[in-house]
Inverse folding.
């Protein structure tokens, strides 16, 4: 912190310790955020350690200090980070409307806006890594599967709170996330919001159709 050099011996020591801790935490966070972004765009195999460290403003020594398991351990942390980032976006859409059908459509619109804002580069934070590591790197496959399950759980919770019975809510939630994942890939390829917006409209109709079924 500024001014610690003029503090008393005890105060200066405390300030230096706090500063060191803050710096260490910042380095770890930068490594995770950078790995998440690079893997989102190029996957695990196409994210060289040297590039990752350089773009994070870190060193190889700091990477292995925070992640003794190296790139693979860092990649798992990056997947968890991407999971939480994507979770915040999904939550924002789901909380935008009490009606789950409108909420699902809002999620699709937010995904479309975020993708367009990234110039169509930043789609799902785990898909590329999931596809290239399936069956080869169990730790990464498990982390990716956990992210998909987490997002489905968010949608299911919204549907359950709206009165959908549990088996139906969970099936619908899986359909919502799976459809949006595919639509996001199509949106990236075509550089257009349309696939996501169309998917959102039809998913909303699907959710409404179940809500209108006689009990």
């Amino acid at each position: 912190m500024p001014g610690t050099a003029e503090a008393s011996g005890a105060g200066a020591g405390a300030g230096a310790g706090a500063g060191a801790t803050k710096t260490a935490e910042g380095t770890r966070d930068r490594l995770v955020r950078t790995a998440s972004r690079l893997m989102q765009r190029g996957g695990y195999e196409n994210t060289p350690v040297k590039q990752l460290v350089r773009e994070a403003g870190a060193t190889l020594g700091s990477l292995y200090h925070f992640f003794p398991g190296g790139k693979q351990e860092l990649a798992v942390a990056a997947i968890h980070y991407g999971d939480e980032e994507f979770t915040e976006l999904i939550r924002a859409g789901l909380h935008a409307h009490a009606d789950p059908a409108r909420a699902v459509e809002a999620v699709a619109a937010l995904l479309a806006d975020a993708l367009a804002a990234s110039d169509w580069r930043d789609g799902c934070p785990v898909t590329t890594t999931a596809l290239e590591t399936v069956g080869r790197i169990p730790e990464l496959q498990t982390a990716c599967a956990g992210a998909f399950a987490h997002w489905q759980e968010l949608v299911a919770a919204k549907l359950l709170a709206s009165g959908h019975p549990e088996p139906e809510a969970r099936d619908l939630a899986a359909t919502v996330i799976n459809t949006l994942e595919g639509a996001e890939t199509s949106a990236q390829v075509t550089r257009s919001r349309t696939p996501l917006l169309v998917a959102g409209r039809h998913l909303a109709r699907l959710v409404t159709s179940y809500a209108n079924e006689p009990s």
Summary: Confidence is low (pLDDT under 50) at residues 1-22. The chain has nine helices and no strands. The CA atoms of residues 13 and 135 lie 50 Å apart. The two ends are 63 Å apart (CA to CA).
